[in-house]
Amino acid sequence: MALPFRHQQNPITATAAAAAATHVAVSLAASAIVFSKLSSPFTLLIILGVIALVLWLVLRPNKVKFYVTDATLTQFDLSTTNNTIFYDLALNMTIRNPNKRIGIYYDSIEARALYQGERFDSTNLEPFYQGHKNTSSLRPVFKGQSLVLLGDREKSNYNNEKNLGVYEMEVKLYMRIRLKVGWIKTHKIKPKIECDFKVPLGSNGRSSSANFEETRCHLDW
């Protein structure tokens, strides 16, 4: 009995094809520079559009995904006399790079913690390089006390959440990154990541992470 034939793409051929397509894109870019002084702006835009299309077909970029996978809140007390919040919040976050040919340099990462739009802490995380099709972890920790300017409505919301034992938090990541394709590295890009999540308050210093639901963050380029 004949077995069905399955076509498998040769990885060497695929790599060669990608290299050839990249070479075409580079050649077109060189042509664009040469003809920029000889051609009309409309023609130059067409050439640049073709370059972008070739690179997109080669790289097929996929969106990087950010998640808050775990959160532990063991203290979150608001002093209404002086508008000071005492807090102890620890997060586990993941960054998934699904791309086959694009690596990412995270040159700087600042994590900011906010409550009802008011920032109460920030921390800088270690820079790192993330390879192709890779998942990396971040573990920002916010602990201390901070003055926050909450109005009557925000204080009422705080009291309601305190009674429920669950608080709505927001963490924003401000980054400077570079993309790496082969030997080419891009200029620095400044994406902003926003993560809105609900975290239960642990009792007697115990972890609250058992009741936490994983949350996907929003990426804004």
UniProtKB/TrEMBL annotation:
It is found in: Membrane. Its main location: membrane. The chain crosses the membrane at residues 12-35, 41-59. Residues 93-195 form the Late embryogenesis abundant protein LEA-2 subgroup domain. It is a single-pass membrane protein. It comes from the Eukaryota. The keyword Membrane applies. One of its GO terms (cellular component) is membrane. Pfam families: LEA_2. One of its GO terms (biological process) is defense response to other organism. This is Hin1 protein. It comes from Nicotiana tabacum.
